[in-house]
Amino acid sequence: MTIAVFGQLVIAGILLGGVYALLSVGLTLIFGVVRIVNFAHGDFVMLAMYATYFLWVLNLDPYLAAPLVTAAFFLFGMAVERLVIRRTLTAPHLVQVFVTLGLSVVFVSFAHLAWSADFRIVRTAYSAAVVALGPIRVTVVGLVAFLVAMATSGLLFLFLRKTQIGAAIRATAQDRQTAAVMGIEVPRVYNLTFGLGIACAGLAGALLVPMYPAFPSVGLGYALIAFVVVILGGLGSFPGAIIGGLLVGVIEMLSGFYLAPSLKEAAYFALFIGVLVLRPAGLLGIRGSELTGIEP
Amino acid sequence: MRDPGEPRRGLGSDRAVALWGLLVAAVALYAGALAIRHDYYVDMAFHVMLWAALAGAWNIVGGLAGQLALGHAAFFGIGAYASTLLLVRAGISPWLGMFVGAAVAAVVALGLGGATLRLKGPFFAMTTAAFAELIRIAAVNWDSLTGGTRGLWIPWEPNPWHFAFRDRRSYLLVAVTLTLVVVVATALLSRGALGFALRSLKDDEDAARSIGVQVTRVKLISFVVSAALTALGGALYAEYLLSIDPPSVLGFDLSIQMALMAVIGGVGTLAGPLLGAFAVVTTSHLLRGWLGGHYGALHLLIYGALLIVFMLFLPAGLVGLLRTARQRLGRRRRGRVMPEAST
User: CA-nearest residue of chain B to A108?
Assistant: First the structure.
């Protein structure tokens, strides 16, 4: 009996973790290439959740809206980079942290003003549908979210490995100056990467909203999850973000059940602090990056 | 004839000027505080001075040492809960309780700082933020100690020994005193070898270490002092409001606000946090008064927008703005370029 429960929790955790992985891939991409910590990442997710919600209100199924939202947020990300982030690239950490923090505050209070603090829930015909995989039951929305998130992460990974633009992005992440010398337009790479990172956040939001309600401050929770995942998996590491995401999803489910629902956040914050103190480079990250800073 | 490069001594010395300046400012603040009649303005002034103290306390670690701490709400909450618990459960006066809270916060800061101050910029920021969230979750869940989400409330009974004053201006006077203490602490930490160590590690940590600066120890000192002062502010706030709960004294937004005010005012400067607190708190109070209700979140939107604008275009904050203005005026009046004053 308990094995079945455990197994159920692990599977549920993996499904949720898939979306966390997607969300964190965006963050780690931004970290690894543009070298800034995007404190507003979770709030981009929040805005995407609202965008998907409003499209649903206009009778567009969330899974059909998802590609639209992703594309829109790709453009949104590029715009934010061009207008705001770009000016902070050579500034001290203080400026970078506070600019993205400021963005976060602006997004949250805008959402609050425009759409009030009421929870917005998307309910479709399949919202409550459950599918049986052997002895395990999974929700349709959870399964779809996982599959789409993993497929997208896979595509992104292939993009980075197999295309020329992907190579340019990876080169910039490795050594910005040499990349520039090789003829790569670094500002454009930054712009594109930031856009990709935010697109990931946008898709994650679209996938989450059929499962969880949207409200203005929901972003903080997702931002912290993304940070935990990225730190756990290692800054700038794509596979690290995937593994970290799945791990955090499982930890959240297990601690929510075996400890207490209100303590599940505590579990991964404690993990977060633990990782930062004991093995700051994370499982697969660049060793010492947290000590030398994330300068290229 | 005195050589212009030589520091002045005696009554005209920099130190004497500073002390006189402090005395004048203190007298002005106290007199001003006592002169306010209307409760609304007393309340607003209280919040200005409290936040000035909090921003100033944050500035000690964020500005002097340059460490981006985003978890000061933890210390604020520790101060609030410690003094309130001691009062409500053990009948101990907050006059004593607030120092107990400060001591607890100092110990916590020692532990946290020891483990995490070696992390750079955004990493340290994330860790402190996560830590403060942990404290908040602990407060929410440890029902038997903290009253959980219901929080704690202090029964009202006017008793100066128990920090309960009939005249609200008394709270304001305490807030002014706390702010002055923070200013003095900041000034003292900026002087001498310790001040030199702080400035050098803020500039370039590795270079500082190479000339023998005890980087970790100095950072730790600033973090602990900052935490203790923040906790005092928390205790004061708890006594003023008479009721506390996790969101009101441990919320992440509090951590952001403390840093935000110091940064907007001018991070690392003496007057910066005060100016920042004054500008931000009065604007938000007035806005809330005019717009109220539905537009309550508008002041937050403005905070965020201000933060972005200041960080992009005015990173030296209001103090920086005033300095540039003063220099430009000075140049125009004298008609020639003056050597840069080192303020």
Answer: B301
Residues of A in contact with B66 (CB under 8 A): 94
| Per-position DSSP letters for A154-201, written without gaps between them | HHHHHHHHHSHHHHHHHHHHH-HHHHHHTT--HHHHHHHHHHHHHHHH
* Residue contact A276–B118, C-beta within 8 A: no
User: Would you call A278 an interface residue with chain B, using a CB distance cutoff of 8 Å?
Assistant: no
CB-closest option in A97, A104, A263 to B122: A97
Q: Which of B68, B123, B261 to mutate to test the interface with A (most CBs of A within 10 A)?
A: B123
Q: What H or E segment, with its residue span, contains residue A296? A: none
Dihedral, A276, A281, A282, A284 alpha carbons, nearest 10: 180
Q: Tell me which residue has tokens 């100092």.
A: B106
Q: What are phi and psi of B270, to 5 degrees?
A: -75, -45
Q: Are the C-beta atoms of B273 and B55 separated by less than 8 Å?
A: yes
A118-127, A210-219, B27-36, range with the lowest pLDDT: B27-36
Closest to A201 measured CA to CA, from A17, A18, A14, A20: A20
Residues of A in contact with B300 (CB under 8 A): 105, 108-109, 112
Q: Greater confidence, A288 or B159?
A: B159
Q: Which residues in chain A belong to E strands, given as ranges?
A: 130-133, 136-139
Degrees (nearest 5) of the Cα angle B303, B306, B309?
155
B109: tokens are 């800061």
Which residue on chain B is closest to A102 by alpha carbon?
A: B304
Inter-axis angle of helices A164-174 and A2-34, nearest 10? 80
pLDDT score of B14 more than 80: no
This complex has an ipTM of 0.84
Q: Nearest by CB to A266, from B70, B134, B315: name it.
A: B134
Residue B132: closest CA among B83, B58, B70, B82: B70
How far does Cα A242 stand from its chain's mean position?
10
Distance from CA of A37 to the nearest CA of B (A): 7
The span from the CA of A188 to the CA of A194, in Å, is 10
Structure tokens that stand for B60 in this block: 């000690």
How many CA within 13 A on the CB side of residue B263?
34
Query: What is the spatial distance between Cα A230 and Cα A268, in angstroms, rounded to a whole number?
Result: 12
Judged by CB atoms closer than 8 Å, whether chains meet at B134 and A277 is answered as no
Cβ–Cβ contact B261 with A under 8 A: no
Which residue type is seen at B290?
A: W
Q: What is the pLDDT of residues A118-137, one digit of tens each?
A: 999 988 888 888 888 788 88
Kindly list the distances between the CA atom of residue A144 and the CA atoms of A27, A86, A125, B42, in Å, as whole numbers in the listed order: 22, 36, 14, 57
Distances (CA, A) of B78 to A275, B20, B86: 25, 35, 12
Q: Which residues contact A195 (CB under 8 A, 6 or more apart)?
A: A74, A75, A77, A78, A81
Using a CB–CB cutoff of 8 Å, tell me whether A94 touches chain B: yes
Expressed in percent and rounded to 5, the helix, strand and coil fractions of chain A are 75, 5, 20
Q: What's the CA gap between B326 and A14, in Å, rounded?
A: 60
DSSP class per residue in A117-140? S--B----TTTT-EEEETTEEEEH
Radius of gyration of chain A (CA): 19
Query: From the list A108, A273, A293, which residue is nearest B127 (CB)?
Result: A273
